[in-house]
Amino acid sequence: MLTIIIRTILIYIIVTAAIRIMGKRQVSDMQTSELVITFIISQTATLPLEDADRPLLNSLIPIMMIVAIELIVSLIMMKSRRFRSIICGHPIVVIKDGKIIESQLKKLRISYEDLYSLLREKDLSDEKSVQYGIIEPNGTLSILSSKDMTTDEISSEDLKDELNDIKQDENQEGETE
Asked: What domain count does the chain have?
């Protein structure tokens, strides 16, 4: 019994330290990859608690390896926007000039009802007053409502790319009509 108590305390301390080292936020703010890493660490940490005959080191080494990999991936994501986009995704514009972009909703597998729910959370009754509605990589909806805002005023490169892609799609649709 004492062995299980000591193991539990050690694993708690190590997992807590590992999560702190990775600099994780609240679950609702996590990227998909961060959430997966958290699940893997928690699953790995439970193994020596379930089986007292299993050496504690057999779980601690994988946890430390996962933390090291996560730190390396985080550093690469800081340096490479393309890598970050592959791992975390990028913002996707779902509303432009007060109109819902149906193709973007399909790509994200978001229903109109879900989008309207997100709009209501922002105290908006419909999309008509929205200049840009953007689904962020973490799934939240950001609203840009300034009517005179241009792509040049946006500092986020990934959002600029997304807006330019939409502009190109609109131009191609205009040419085919």
From this structure: 2
How large is the C-alpha radius of gyration of the chain? 22
Q: Are residues 40 and 105 in the same domain?
A: no
User: For residues 154, 158, 159 and 163, what is the CA-based torsion angle, rounded to 10 degrees?
Assistant: 110
Domain that holds residue 35: 2-86
CATH number for the domain spanning 114: value is 3.30.240.20
Helices (runs of H) and strands (runs of E) counted in the chain: 7, 4
Q: Which of 99, 100, 98 is nearest to 145 (CA)?
A: 98
Please state the φ and ψ torsions of residue 93, each to the nearest 5 degrees.
-80, 125
Residue 177 is given by DSSP the state -
Domain boundary among 86, 112, 140: 86
pTM of the model: 0.63
- For 71-105, write each residue's pLDDT tens digit: 898 899 889 989 988 888 889 999 998 999 999 99
